[in-house]
């Protein structure tokens, strides 16, 4: 088993982290104060509302937990602070590159526009980069339950916002009732506009077809993809196309993607050469951090430093950044991991 200090020292890439699901307790309190909103009296009561219990029955019950923080994320100032807060937490996990995702449409309850919501998050990411040794970019999520006419408003943001920190598009939310194929038009439009695409898919039982559809429509990464376990015939394609699976062990158990450790396919995927990566998904809703996710994998599978190095190189390959930045990260990680392995 790997020593926790060794895990802490590993540089990490995190590709799948939701802004609204990852606010620290201190940040939640700050945001409420800024807005003059009241919160439950004790920290324990706040966390009780913000976290999903181990006993969540399915993905939809897990998703209900996001309702608690969203009222706090309706102003430019609070979104900026929230983005800063999540990057700060990632820096504590020794994350060197992170992509943070959020659904702009969820932040328009007061008077923000879609553009302003995205700009606020980008400003918070940029401010955090000044204070921590980390690069942080943003992904925009559409939500699967949104009408297609609303989802269509998201792609133009990639034209109106020229900031390099806006790097990709995702579809999140209710996979149980909304199959990926329903979004064929918008995903194809994103693809045709050369927007990088990652899609939540294969996160609920019997949802494996969504993974195939996501890849065929142009996603280069899959959010979770747990149900790839049931389409072994498709693994060769996933490997050939260098598709990155953004897995998040704690979240994957909470959403009941699977129920028994023996069924969790992370190691099988890894051994077969699939490009698995490790992520938190939601630091607060899942009450975790990247250190804990790495620790779980180290404990369950006797993963070694070199194995973690490998999955981080997969993550770098999948990152939505220019080739030159990938080369730099690959070189830095190779050097840093070599030092950890020597010890
Ligand atoms: O694991 C997940 N699967 C699907 N959707 C998710 C997951 N985690 C968060 N969200 C959804 O993404 C929105 C924007 O961040 C969140 O509000 C939540 O509804
Ligand atoms: Zn997610």
Automatic annotation (TrEMBL):
Substrate binds at residues 18, 20, 173. The keyword Signal does not apply. Signal peptide: none annotated. GO terms for molecular function: hydrolase activity. Gene3D superfamilies: Metal-dependent hydrolases. The active site is at residue 203. Its cofactor is Zn(2+). Binds 1 zinc ion per subunit. Coiled coil: none annotated. InterPro entries: A_deaminase (IPR028893), A_deaminase_dom (IPR001365), Ado/ade_deaminase (IPR006330), Metal_Hydrolase (IPR032466). The keyword GTP-binding does not apply. Its EC number is 3.5.4.4. It catalyses: adenosine + H2O + H(+) = inosine + NH4(+); 2'-deoxyadenosine + H2O + H(+) = 2'-deoxyinosine + NH4(+). Keywords: Hydrolase, Metal-binding, Nucleotide metabolism, Zinc. Residues 11-331 form the Adenosine deaminase domain. Zn(2+) binds at residues 16, 18, 200, 281. The record marks 224 as: Important for catalytic activity. It comes from the Bacteria. NCBIfam families: aden_deam (TIGR01430). Belongs to the metallo-dependent hydrolases superfamily. Adenosine and AMP deaminases family. Adenosine deaminase subfamily. PANTHER family: ADENOSINE DEAMINASE. Catalyzes the hydrolytic deamination of adenosine and 2-deoxyadenosine. This is Adenosine deaminase. It comes from Lactococcus nasutitermitis.
């Amino acid at each position: 088993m790997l020593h926790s200090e060794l895990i802490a020292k590993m540089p990490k890439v995190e590709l799948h982290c939701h802004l609204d699901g990852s606010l620290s307790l201190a940040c939640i309190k700050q945001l409420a104060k800024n807005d003059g909103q009241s919160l439950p009296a004790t920290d324990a009561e706040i966390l009780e509302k913000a976290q999903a219990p181990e006993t969540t029955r399915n993905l939809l019950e897990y998703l209900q937990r996001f309702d608690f923080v969203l009222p706090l994320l309706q102003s430019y100032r609070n979104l900026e602070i929230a983005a800063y807060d999540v990057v700060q937490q990632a820096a504590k996990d020794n994350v060197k590159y992170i992509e943070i995702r959020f659904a702009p449409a969820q932040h328009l309850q007061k008077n923000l526009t879609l553009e302003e919501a995205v700009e606020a998050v980008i400003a918070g990411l940029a401010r955090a980069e000044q204070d921590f040794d980390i690069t942080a970019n943003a992904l925009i999520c559409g939500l699967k339950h949104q009408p297609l006419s609303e989802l269509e408003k998201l792609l133009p943001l990639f034209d109106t916002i020229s900031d390099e920190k806006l790097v990709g598009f995702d579809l999140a939310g209710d996979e149980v009732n909304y199959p990926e194929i329903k979004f064929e038009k918008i995903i194809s439009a994103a693809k045709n506009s050369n927007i990088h695409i990652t899609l939540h898919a294969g996160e609920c039982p019997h949802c494996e077809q969504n993974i195939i559809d996501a890849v065929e429509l142009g996603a280069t990464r899959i959010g979770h993809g747990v149900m790839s376990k049931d389409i072994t015939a498709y693994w060769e394609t996933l490997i050939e196309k260098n598709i990155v699976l953004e897995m998040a062990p704690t979240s994957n158990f909470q959403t009941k993607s699977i129920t028994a450790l023996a069924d969790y396919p992370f190691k099988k995927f890894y051994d077969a050469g699939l490009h698995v990566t490790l992520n938190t998904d939601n630091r607060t809703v899942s009450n975790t951090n990247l250190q804990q996710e790495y620790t779980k994998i180290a404990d369950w599978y006797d993963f070694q430093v070199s194995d973690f190095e490998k999955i981080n190189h997969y993550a770098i390959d999948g990152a939505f950044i220019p080739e030159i930045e990938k080369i730099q990260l690959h070189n830095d990680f190779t050097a840093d991991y070599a030092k950890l392995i020597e010890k």
